[in-house]
Amino acid sequence: MSTKYEREDDRPLAPGLYLVATPIGNLEDITLRALRVLRSVDRIACEDTRQTQKLLNHFEIRTPTVSYHMHNEGTRTEELTSELKQGARIAVVSDAGTPGIADPGGQITAAAIATGIDVFPIPGANAAISGLIASGLPTDQFVFHGFLPAKAGQRKTALEELARGDVTHVFYEAPHRILDTLADVEAVLGAGQHVVIARELTKLHEEFLRGAAGEIRSHLAARASVRGEIVVMLAPSAVEASSEKRASLAVEVAALMKSDGINEMDALKRIARERGIGKSEAYRELQREQNRLR
Ligand code: SAM
After folding, report:
1. What's the gap in Å between 176 CA and the centre of ligand 1?
2. pLDDT over threshold 60, residue 294
């Protein structure tokens, strides 16, 4: 299948609703099309007008804004839909990332569609997809859950109800809850559950932590505080099983070095022979395991 790219469109913007993704940290992640749409629409409906104004000022965009957030979504949807019916061009943006994804946007989209108004997605940054593609976890099947419940009991129930198997699970989490959430993951899915934490994506202090839930929790708990925005991902059970196998390689190497008084390389060669795998494959496996927590 070939991808057909189209040149930048210089025709006036068609009437309709434009769902415009904005950066999740790095301002360079705004697209050329998003800028053109934000410049050309009649109004921009913003989750927080002050927050969006900073973005608009940076790009010298003078389009009027109006608030559209979870507390006025219903009434604003009615107002904006009646403007759209008269041929207005309206953009919806959230504070960061893709509108409608754990953010306002869904209600006005449904109302516009029900009224026969055109809805245009203007794709761009999204924290879940950015975290997932760099997680190292399978991306062929995944489930996005938004935020886990804030209350401990409900969070545990939500984790218990996860359909395990071959899918990667993706969550958003607040920094002040991450240690409790990891403790719940350990309690419900086991301390060995393979977890990936993506923190401060696209920003200066972007960080990925990959490893067993218990190890990651101790690693984060040792910090004075955990800050920033976080995506949590849980590996499918198959990956968990293979990471357990990797862990046992390091444990076996250490045990052999101790019992037989040999060095790491000799221990690794012997284990590789016993497992019927090549020396270099065993070495790479050991390194991967050691790197998981760096
Ligand atoms: N609509 C947004 C999107 O497309 O990703 C998500 C909005 S949701 C209210 C905010 C949550 O997304 C944060 O609490 C965090 O879990 C996640 N998030 C947003 N920006 C992030 C970033 N730069 N790094 C990691 N997670 C981020």
Report:
1. 14
2. no
